[in-house]
Each structure stands twice: as structure tokens, then as C-alpha cells.
Amino acid sequence: MASLQRIRNHGALLIAIVGLAMLAFILGDFLNSGSSFFNRSRENVGVIEGQKVHYTEYEAAKEQLTEVYKIESGRSDFDEDTYTQIRNQVWSMLLMDYTMRAQAKKIGMDITTDELSELCIGENVHQILRSRRAFMDENGQFSRDAVKNLIAAINDDSEDAAQNANLQQAKTYWLYWEKAVRISYMQEKYTALLQHLLKANSLEAEYAFNGRQNGLSAEYVMQPFYQVADSLVKVSDGDIKKLYKQRKEQFKQTPNRAIKYVAFDIVPSEDDFKAAQDLLTNLQEEFKTTEDVSLVVNTNSDIMYDGRDYSIETVPAQFKDFAFAKGAKAGDCTDILFENNTYAMARIMQAGYSLPDSVELKAIVEGGEDQELGWFKAADLPKNIAEPAFAGKRGTRFTVAQGMGEQTYEIMEIGKPTPKVKLAILAREVTPSSKTYSIIYNSAKQFIVANNNAEAFEEAAQEAGMAVTPQYNLTENTDKIGQLKSSRPIVRWAFDAKEGQVSDVFECGQQFVVAALTEVNDGEYRPLASVRSELMYEALNDAKAEYLKKQLKGVESLEAAAEVLGQRIQNVERVSLADSRFGNAGMEPAVIGKAIALGENALSEPIKGNMGVFVVRTGAANNLEAEFNADSEKAQLASRFAYLPYQAIQLIEDKAEVVDNRANFQ
User: Comparing C-alpha atoms, which of 651, 637, 636, 633 is closest to residue 191?
Assistant: First the structure.
């Protein structure tokens, strides 16, 4: 009862507490139910032309391109660089697809079904398909029938699970290249339209012709900027800031980071070398005498014994003289050898016989056209195919399990027999042990503890004689730092860390890496401090130009200008508006333009050029004699415009207001 009374006495407080709890529950339920709404934006890999690119689309495109790589390379064990290439290629294709579709929609352009069909199986198949080995015949020529057969095959269903899997892979392959053709042709149509619009008119043709035909001779003196001492001019902070403001658009940047890192190589210790050598020493007698060599080798060696036949070209170089020595016989064994960080010894299992080095095979296709596969060495084929292929005779057919089905092959031709030997090789590469890993890792950890800021980090590394490697302009999507393997985690760390911070230990292949974040650049433009040196060079040249102009003030002849500057007079036989170079002075468009504007027999004011200050004296007209051909002139101008449509494609992508969030998914 007393408890009940206490509850009554504090009822108002309890009601308030319960009310707050219920409100928290309701808000929590709302936030949880609405989490899909808030998370949707986080599921977008990016935004292109206002269109969101969902994570699932990006991943599906990566998986599709990965399958294409597998089919075209015949491999599935891709390295880090290949996967990076796939990711970047997928993003480039998405960027091209979204931007071109947006532009095409604006102008009402499209690719019809008939156009796409013509590009894929018509008389004018697109070059993308023509260049694919999958669509070439045995002579290496493009085969339209190969494309048609593939399209027909992927539209059929099969009751065989393995065949269905192969058809699905083939369908993935085809759909990728069909899409690539569509995107590429859309771009080609767009650039063709721009090229059609970029035509020269008669006035432009005549102006260009006259600019090339009309010229004059000239003389000049020039004082190079580098010959004027910096101490003779003054450049203020205000000058640099003014120039920075004028050039600011040139310094646009994406958010980036700069780091410095040191690497601790993960290499074997002396104990690791001794352990590997001791292992082979302890097994040496058993290896020489055992009847079950495969058990000893396959339990302890880095090179498995599978009964393979070595030729003089394929046997490991260190065992060549031993294996093919005169009188070599089964049971012969080498001593323990050391080469390339590996202890090894070999025993001859069989010698004195010959087998062909290569075989030509054909795949038998039931109900279809057999496929000639070409020549293979034994090492190029799976064991279940290599054994019957090299044991059979010309014309022999054999069937092997493949996936969940079977495949029949025919031996078309067999290479000339050459001497062979069967070797059992007991080899152990010296690799860092777990103890060695721990010792090196702890050294890296201790380095961090003792040097926990960027300044101490670099100072300590230099004192220890360690290489400090700088890396600049890392963006959120940087996949790899220099040659460091598996270094993407360092990039993620750099964008979460604060300037001056030292990282934890990262394992990058056979190195432990510690990094220090030295720069954080999140502004829209590179800061003045980072571009000050290049602006200073330009500002100094501007100041030197003004200095030289003052020295030349009142000069009324070229000879007087030469005397003031201490330079000799140089000749230009002919200069016209079509020229890009001014005599021996190089690329000087401002000087050329002002010289032409002067007309005949005139002296210029001092002119600031790219490399120095010029004074020019023009001579007599030096015109070329040629007949004006409007059509020819227009064609020449059109050829100069040829690059503009392709530049427009790049400009479209640059102006597409792209939001790239891939860093959140890598």
C-alpha cells in the first residue's frame, strides 16, 4: 500500500516520464520506418545530369564487365589493377551513357531498333564488334554468322543446367557489347551532327586565304626575361593576389589529400631461412628412397607432383643439366640447391622417353558446327583434357566432364615427339613466418607511438634512414597509391583523418605502411600558397616587361632599341597571320598580330611577348601569288574544326554536374 501511495504522490512525474518514453518510441519507430528514405541517398553511387545512379546498377555493370573480361581473357584470377580498371571503365561508360542520353533527348535524337540491328548484324557492322575475337573465324576475319549464331543461341532455352549456365554467360557477354555499340554510335551521331554544323562560310574562307597570302618582312630586337635580374624589379603580395584572382578559374580542384609514408618490408628473417633449409635436410633421405614420392612432395613442397612431363624448355632451369644429362635415369637425385629464396631438390621418376610438345584440338558440337581450337601445350590444358589429348593419336576423339555436362574433342594433329622426363621436385620458398610478421608489425607500431605527428614522423624516418615517399592529389576515388598493393584503405583513412595525423599500420602486400596526412585540400580552388611559385614567375615577367618598356621609352629607331637592350637586330623574312612562330623567337602570337597591324615600314612600341620584350620594324609587303578557291579554303577550315565535336563531348561530361560517390562503395 505504501508503494501505491508513493506512486500516487509522484503520478504527474511518472506520466511525464511515460509520455517522453512513448514519444521516443514513436519517433524511433518513425525514424526506423523512414530509414529507407534517408538511406536511399546513400545508396546512390552518383548523380549524372540530374539522374541518380543506384548502387545496384553500378554493381550489376561491374559484374557484367567482369564476366566479359573472364570470357575474353580466359581467366578469372584478376589482380587488383584489373579490378580497378573494370571499376573505372564501368564509371566511364555510365558517364557517357547518361550524358549522351540527356543530350539526345534535348535535340530529339535516338537510335532506332533497325539502326541497332544494322550495326550488329547488318552489312555495316560496328567496329566494336568487328574487333572482338569471339566474332572472328579461323582466319582471324570478322564473321557475321558468328554474331547471328550467338544471338540465336542465347535466345534458346536448354534443359541442361550446365548449358544454361554457359548460355547465360554468353548472354551477359552479348548484352554488354550491344550496349557498347549503342552508346558509341549515339556519340558518333552526335559528333557527326556537330561536324555538319561546323562549316566555314565564304567570308571566313576569304579572310583565312588573305591572312595566309598577305605578309611582310620584319626586323626585331628582343630582350629575354631571363636576362633581366630579379633584383631589378619588385613584386608585391598585392601583385600576386591580383594575378591569383585573374587566374583563379585555372586552379579549380576536387577535394584532395597529400600524404607521406614509410614502408616496412615484410621479408624473411635468418630463422626463416634456417627453418626452410632444415626442413629439406630432414626430408632429404626419405625423398631419395621413398616409394611414395607424391606423399612426401605433396605434403611438404611448394611444387606439387602430378606426374607432368617436362621438356628441356619447360623444366626448371636449375635442374635442366641434371634432368637431361647423358645417362640420367629414374632414381637419380640432386643435392639441396638454393636459388631465388627457395631451397629445392629434384628426383627423376622416369627418363629416356619422348612425347609431343603440342597438340591441335577441335571441339565437337552436336547439332552445330565443330570449332577448331588451335594448338596447345600440355601446360595450357586442364589435366583431364591434357592426358587423353597427348596420349591419343591423330583423329582420336575423347570425351571429358565439363561443368555439369560433357565435351567431346578430336585430336586434329600431334606435334613432333621430343625428349621428356618426369621429375619430383621438393621445394620450399623462404617466406616470413608468423613470428617474423609480428616482429616487423611491432616495429611499425612502435614507430607510430614514438612519432605521432607528421613533423616527428618525417624527422624520425630520416634519422633512421628510411625512405619517406610523398603522394599528392589523392582524391576520394583514388584506388591505389603509387605501387603500393591493396592501398585503398590508406586513401579512406586520409579522408577521415586530420591534417598532421599519423595513421595506424596498413598491410599492403609484402609491406607494412605507416602514413602521415600532410595536406587537406577541400576548397573549390587550390589555395594561393600552393600556386604562389608559378604566379611569382608570371608576375616577375610582367614586372620585367614594364621595366624594359621604361628603358625603351623615347627610342625612335630599331638600332637605338638594340643599343639600349644590348641585343643584335634579327630578321624575319616573312610574317603573316597564318604563322604561329615569329622568326627564331618561337611561339609569339601577340608579336605577330601587332606586327601585321603595323603595316609596311613602321616601328612598334615595345611589345610584351611570351619570352621577352620585342621592338619590331616592319619592311615591305611580301605577298604570295595564288588563286582563291573558296571550296578548297572551306575544306581546309573544316579540317581545323574536326577536333571540336570531340572536345564538345568532353565538355558535355565536364558540365554534367556529376556527383561521384563511388568512394563510399569501394
Answer: 651
Domain boundaries, the chain: 2-33, 44-197, 212-249+529-621, 256-267+433-521, 270-429
Which are the contacts of 58, defined by CB distance < 8 A and separation ≥ 6?
45, 90, 91, 94, 662, 665
Residue 28's pLDDT is what?
Answer: 47
Cα separation, 475 vs 161, in Å, equals 45
Rounded-to-integer distance, Cα 243 and Cα 612, Å: 19
**Topology (CATH level 3) of domain 212-249+529-621:** Chitinase A; domain 3 (3.10.50)
- Residue 581 vs residue 645, higher pLDDT: 581
Angstrom distance (rounded) from CA 568 to CA 561:
9
Nearest to 535 by CA among 166, 231, 242: 242
Task: Provide the pairing of β-strand 44-48 with 607-608.
Answer: unpaired
- State residue 628's pLDDT score: 87
CA distance 301 to 582: 72
Report pLDDT digits (tens) over 503-529: 999 999 999 999 999 999 999 999 999
pLDDT at 403: 60
Instruction: Give the C-alpha distances (Å, rounded to integers) separating 609 from 279, 546, 586.
Output: 75, 12, 10
**Residues with Cβ within 8 Å of residue 179, at least 6 apart in sequence:** 97
Residue 363 has pLDDT above 60, yes or no: yes
Query: Is the Cβ–Cβ distance between 308 and 297 less than 8 Å?
Result: no
What residues form DSSP beta bridges with 427? 344
Q: Which fold has domain 256-267+433-521?
A: Chitinase A; domain 3 (3.10.50)
